[in-house]
Amino acid sequence: MALSVAIVGSGPAGFYTADSLLKADPECRIDIIDRLPTPYGLIRFGVAPDHEKTKNVMRGFARTASDDRVHFYGDVDIGEALSLDELREMYDAVVLAVGAAHDRRLGIPGEDKAGVVGSASFVNWYNAHPDFVDRTPDLDTSSVVIIGAGNVAIDVARVLVKTPAEMAATDLPDYAARPIHGAPISDVYMVARRGPVEAKFTNVELREMGHLEQCVPQVAAADLPAEVTGEMSPRDRRVREKNLETLRAFSEREADEMPKRVHFVFFASPVEILGGEHVEAVRFERTRVENGRAVGTGEHYEIACGLVVAAVGYLSLPVDGAPFDHKQGVVVNEEGRVGPGLYAVGWIKRGPTGVIGTNKPDGRDAAQQIIDDLGAGGGKPGREGLEALLRARGRRWVDLEDWQRIEAAEIAAAAEGAPRRKLYRHEDFLAVLDEQRAAG
Ligand code: NAP
Question: What is the position in ligand 1's atom list of the atom closest to the CA of 198?
Answer without folding.
Answer: 46
